[in-house]
UniProtKB/TrEMBL annotation:
Pfam families: CbiJ
KW Metal-binding (keyword) present: no
Pathway(s) annotated for this protein in UniProt: Cofactor biosynthesis; adenosylcobalamin biosynthesis
Organism domain of life: Bacteria
PROSITE patterns in UniProt: COBK_CBIJ
Keyword Oxidoreductase carried by entry: yes
EC number: 1.3.1.106
Signal peptide span: none
Gene Ontology molecular function, alphabetical: oxidoreductase activity
Protein's name according to its UniProt entry: Cobalt-precorrin-6A reductase
Keywords: Cobalamin biosynthesis, Oxidoreductase
Length: 254
């Protein structure tokens, strides 16, 4: 069975590594091509968008894909919606990997908001020095804020408009708690803004904010498309793939 793994996350690389040599599975990983120097998954890789839902559907049919695992980042909503529609049209089984969301711990001062625009609005309540750790995309939501100074951290430079007062810090995690505490103190940060990405790769900033008693604006995840089943780990997705391959084999020999 040919399998498409939609990647761009650690779980996607773990799944590709765990299933690449598996008998009966042929894995193709797909990356959007956003990061200049991506961590490549093991095995076959294609890079770049498909060109929308219909082109994705045509690609899945032409490549004879028997199952899709959407292991993109929890905030990659568009590819998730496109994939749900394309796989449903073709009757291809689809699974989502969604690592557990972060949860507030004693000592945390979190404000949860629905999206980046709401995060920008929420900032009126806090101090002037903002640590923006939402990645490269979506920084434009903060471009109109002229009062605050922003420390913007991302792997690659954000595109589009930026807030007038800012410093750009281009670096890739994981980050250590002590380094995060030092950064908050050095830049005299008043408030942190983050997406609820979950996982331990970038969690240190939340531990640091707790230690420093700083408020955090946490952007909630987009909703899962209706009818899509999700698991939390690459291992659960591997088990699902093996079961799906057996079923597909039984169907084809019937
Ligand atoms: P998105 O808004 O859901 O997708 C935008 C478009 O990018 C999609 O319509 C699709 O283009 C293309 N695309 C996205 N993921 C793809 C993949 N794995 N393979 C091929 N095409 C893909 O996604 P995004 O937020 O731009 O994220 C893009 C990639 O960066 C994802 O792979 C995601 O895992 C990774 N990432 C995202 C975030 C984040 O915060 N959003 C953080 C870390 C990593 P077409 O319509 O042309 O097919």
């Amino acid at each position: 069975m040919r399998v498409l793994i939609l990647g761009g996350s650690r779980e996607a690389r773990e799944l590709a590594a765990a299933t690449s040599g598996e008998r009966g599975l042929e894995i193709v990983s797909s990356l959007a091509g956003r990061v200049r120097d991506p961590h490549l998954p093991e095995g076959q890789v294609r890079i770049g968008g498909f060109g929308g839902t219909e082109k994705l559907r045509d690609w899945l049919a032409a490549e004879d894909i028997g199952a899709v695992v959407n292991a993109t980042h929890p905030f990659a909503a568009r590819i998730g919606a496109n994939t749900a529609v394309a796989t449903a049209a073709l009757g291809i089984p689809l699974l989502r990997i969604l690592r557990p969301a972060w949860s507030e711990q004693p000592g945390d001062r979190w404000t949860r908001v629905a999206d980046l625009d709401a995060a920008a609005r929420a900032l009126t309540e806090f101090g002037d020095r903002v640590f923006l750790t939402i990645g490269r995309q979506g920084v434009g939501a903060f471009a109109g804020l002229t009062r605050q100074w922003f420390l913007i951290r991302a792997i690659d430079p954000p595109d589009g408009a930026l807030p007038p007062k800012h410093e750009l810090l281009l670096t890739r995690g994981p980050f250590a708690v002590d380094d995060e505490i030092a950064l908050l103190s050095d830049r005299r940060i008043d408030v942190l803004v983050t997406k609820d990405s979950g996982g331990d790769q970038t969690e240190a900033k939340l531990v640091a904010a707790r230690a420093a008693g700083l408020p955090v604006v946490v952007v909630d995840r987009p909703a899962l498309p209706e009818g899509v089943t999700a698991v939390e780990t690459a291992e659960q997705a591997r088990e699902w793939l093996l079961r799906t391959a057996v079923r597909s084999d039984q169907d084809s020999t019937r």
